[in-house]
From TrEMBL, chain B:
It comes from Cellulomonas carbonis T26. Residues 108-304 form the ABC transmembrane type-1 domain. This is ABC transporter permease. The keyword S-adenosyl-L-methionine does not apply. The chain crosses the membrane at residues 45-63, 112-133, 145-165, 177-197, 217-244, 282-304.
Amino acid sequence: MEGIRRSARRPMAVAASAVAVTALAACGGSDGGSGGSGSASGESCTNEIVNADAPQVSVWAWYPAFEQVVDNFNETNDDVQICWTNAGQGADEYTKFSTALEAGSGAPDVIMLEAEVLSTFTIRDGLVDLSEYGAGELEGEFTEGAWSDVTNGDAIYAVPVDGGPMGMLYREDIFAEYGVEVPTTWEEFATAAQALKDAGYEGYITNFPTNGNAFIHALMAQKGWEPFTYDAAAPTEIGIAVDTEPAQEVLSYWEGLVDEGLVSTDEAFTADYNTSLVDGTYAVYLAAAWGPGYLQGLSDADEEATWRAAPIPQWEGEEPTQINWGGSTFAVTSQADDPELAAQVAMGIFGTEEAWDIGIEEAALFPLWKPVLESDGFATREYEFFDGQQIQQDVFLEAASGYQGFTFAPFQTYVYDQQTQQLFAMVEGSVDSAGALAGFEKSLVDYATAQGFTVTE
Amino acid sequence: MSLQTAGGNAGAPQTTETARRPRRGGRTAPASTGRGPRSSRIGSHLFLLALVLYFITPLWWLVVASTKTNSGLFTGTGGPLWFDDQFNLFQNLRDLSTHQGGIYWTWLGNSFLYALSAGVGATVLAVLAGYGFAKYRFRGRTFSFALLLGSVMVPLTALVIPTFVLLSEFQLVNTRWAVILPSLLSPLGVYLIRVYAQDVVPDEMLDAGRVDGAGELRLFFQVALPLLRPAIVTVLLLSVVATWNNYFLALAMLRSPDLLPITVGLNNWQMLSNAGAGGEQVWNLIVTGAFVSILPLIVAFLSLQRYWQGGLTLGAIK
């Protein structure tokens, strides 16, 4: 019996595995086919290619309005065509880019990146230095701060697109109702916060988000905080000076407001935060130039509210300092088939007034390209949301031209994570602002050392 | 049978035992609660009611939220758990069909394709392997089953990057195969089928079949498969749901918007809505899209209910 069973089983096992193998082989065969056709048809573009004969450059970018910009580019360029893919916004796209770098293939020719992550990818040899391809000539076409954010030493790692110079959006109706002056300095801001509360306003003057990432960086940078020194030419050395006087002063200022219950500490970009932004819980939205677009998208039905824009408050007795929050650039990846052509595209996409008409009109972008930035049309543009206020001329143009640039770390994501942890501990009351900064600095130094950086002050 | 236990690994009898236990418990449980005193029943009912509320509330929120406008979501009059004065569900559905050229339905179609092909594929492989493990002795069985049990513990997410590198060698990244192929393997499914098959497909029945001259394939298809049906439906449901909900694999493997499943697609919209710069806020479409996307799963579970519930009483050897 045993013998029979055995002999019966063996062939069965063989047959089963044979079936499995053929099944897999069948999959493999058809995979090869579809994979081949997939790559043959190029990266499947989201847009229509106008001139099919021209060489194509693949571009990842996330702005929805980019579709029209691409069409405009393809219609006006015979020698090169853009094949656009929306590979996700921010972190999603960076994840894909990272895995593609790891795998050695799969990255596009040109990629949209925020300025703050440029060194994260240059350190992995992910980006091409555009100075070889004539990008240096563009220097005069951008503001000083914008240009400094995409360069490192002599190297140019990206072309600036849009920026986020900061201002203060406030509810004029709330300030008027409670008879409080709109602040122009941070000292007045704290007084106004108290005055609003004393007058019976039930909300908060503004919000201090512990996950504010670049926003918090900007607030501290306004007092002269320069946490990192990093030179792409010496990629294993980094200077870390996080726990310094400017940061201590700014953070203890906000700690005071939080402790007195004058500002809330909701996490940014959550449903609660969005609700508070538009329902009058916050009287002030400290915002970048793209903030009005964000606000408008949330509150299209709230006609009671009157929003106005004003310059960001300054510190008394100090030179006015302008700060920036966010914005995007185009970089050429190290996997580009033809870096020169890719560089031409990266420099050319937003290098026309037509492209910027779309960018400003459809996507509420803030241009960093001077021919548009400094045009009368942009300065005197009236914004219906602000009841016709010319917010660019009143606030953001000066903020953009005054911005001097900022050096981010080549591990910026980790920096933000640590900042969030420490700030959260601070608003929960388990450490004070000094302790939070000390912990923040220590965690970064430890991390950088563990990653093999030579850390200096 | 003697061969089975002698040759099988030490874990086999135990697993058989654990597989049997819930069924026994299931049969006796109603009787015991029926006899309990009234007060304890009220207590347990209250407890169950609290659980129901806990699990239903998010679903209720989703239903309500999908009827709101974009600004109604944030400034609506009814609060988060009640309807707004403006009923916008149909407008949301219309917008869902037109936003970005109606790409939402492409995503939904992709999710269906991935979930069904990976679900069916994973089930077929799991049934073949699980039956083989349960009913045949071959060299390396103990070792390979131990390996399989070990791989149950490895989450698919942890394998995404190596899989990416592997598939990128074969030029399969950013194709549908990049999602389907890795999803075809379901160690848990193999394990379930093996345990179940060991229990409900008696060796005596197979031996009787052999004596009557049935071949192994015929035994598998005509004797084992019908008995395994409840387990097959369970594994099918599990793997369909797992693929439908799989987020990270598709996020890493795909970049063309046309290939994305619904999970990653909706997340793209959410990221864009949060982005501020150049983004557009489509919270109402995200919420309505999420609502629509769970309907197929609910339908699948309800319509297949009698099969996998039936499985609880099947398998008794008379």
